[in-house]
Amino acid sequence: MVGLFLTAIIDACESGRDHDTEPVQLTLPRTGLAVDLAHYSRRRRINRDSSFSVMG
Known about the structure:
The chain is α+β, with helices and mostly antiparallel strands. It has a domain at about 1-40. Helices cover about 25% and strands about 10% of the residues. It is built from one helix and two strands. The longest helix is centred in the first third of the chain and has 13 residues, at about 1-15.
């Protein structure tokens, strides 16, 4: 899944899209559901309840 997410973000940015201002939406190939990748923006809102650890 991470590979799909990163590929979608990198492809969009390489095509000139600013993921920070216009977050990428990815349609999953098997389910057809859309995933909002705004969580992976550098400008996402800080979750003060987070442990601030690395996402794994």
